[in-house]
Amino acid sequence: MKTDVMMRHLKDSLKSLKRNGWMSVAAVSAVTVTLLLVGIFLALLANVNRVSSQVENDVRVRVSIQKGTTDKQQAALKKELENFAEVKSVQFRSASQELDNIIGSYGKQWQTFKGDQNPLNNVFVVDTKDAKDTIKVAKKADKLKHVSEATYGGAKAKQLFKTVATIQRWGLGFTILLLFVAVFLISNTIRITILSRRTEIGVMRLVGATNAYIRWPFLLEGAWTGLFGAVLPMLIVDFGYGLVTRNAPFTVAANGFSLYPNMPFLVWIDLALAVIGMVIGALGAVVSMRRFLKI
Amino acid sequence: MIQMKNVMKKYTNGVIAIKDLSLTVDPGEFLYVIGPSGAGKSTLIKMLYHELVPTSGTIQVGKYDFSTMSDKDVPYFRRGIGIVFQDFKLLPRLTVYENIAYAMEVIEARDEDIKPRVLHVLKLVGLEQKVRRFPSELSGGEQQRVSIARAIVNAPDVVIADEPTGNLDPDTSDGIMDILERINADGTTIIMATHNRELVNARPHRLLEIAGGRLVRDEEGGSYSDED
After folding, report:
1. Global confidence as pTM
2. Are A190 and A289 contained in the same domain?
3. Which residues of chain B neighbour A213 with C-beta distances below 8 Å?
4. Predicted ipTM?
């Protein structure tokens, strides 16, 4: 499309948004309410997924190797673990790798334990072929020589998985429902503005405007509605999430999980809200335009 | 220019508005379409700019054969014709200039081409002094002149006018006819549906009379008879 024409459409769409006054405010408010809920759910779902994968890591069997075990003895222990029929893979993680992991998840205060101060053991992380064999493998591994301790997530993990799956299912369903509601609200609001411009559309068609040309200003108007409607939810979600991450680390970390750090997570959430807003706005406009564009 | 062959239009409610109508219009002709209310004039006019499609028969306008024309072609077809309505159909929120420029904008004309062309057609209809006025600030005759300017701004081959003087007093109607005849003198085909007996009799052109959906008269320089 020519730049002239695109600029005309952009100008027209903004003018129309202004001309429709309270109607536009109503549409923007509808988007605001919906996107606020969508934003909250997005942040929640993303963190539930994160925690879920952290829990998944926890249900592996972690076989701590006694301090002072030689490399040869460690290799022999690895072989023994790999020989278990239930075991899929055995991965070695040194004590310093373990510490780095903790520093990455829970903060730099753990750096004081680096080097000789490191209280952690080398570990073998054992993946089982089937999750239900975790307990059996842990028990068997615990009895092996040079093993200080073999642990697994256990019942706590099972319960958490169930909860996570429920939150994911309901959260996703609710988010999709919200998006439908938003498209419906926007399309209805835009339909009213279109109704008031029926003569205009009629004249456009009679002087030879293509459907695409007629559609553009409405589509852009819908996208603006979505974008403006996303501003407040972005601010509220940014502020709210900041508040949660400032106050939650201790309780969450105590359970062995961590939330996404504010940056760049909030940038992605904001971007997602802006894009979702624009897409549902434009979609709402297209839906309500269909019947006015017959030749 | 225009060819209609055995055209029939039946509405979904069963009413047959046009029956077996055949017609040829050459380029540059001026044509009146007359007939009583409900005779089928508006149906005929609407079929000419593809607002209505015939139930049977064929219509060809310029290079466009309606029986083979796709929906996508319709806007491009309409760019070759100008339409003038009895109720003007101007956009109230736009100025005179903007109303006319609009017809060029929607066909994606370049900004630098729009201004000189709009000013040219405004001069042609004698409204160059009212460029910044809104339709509500104009008289009926002036609004119809804006509507004619909009119809000819894209230099169409045909101008179709549906009762263009229907809402105007005799003097103003005369002024509108002057403009349409001037446009016609420049080579544009004019098809005008009208009820205006005085105008038709005072300015004779080819006359088509429709009655009961049929073409009952096609006469060069014809006039309203006493029975009409």
Report:
1. 0.68
2. yes
3. 106, 108
4. 0.82
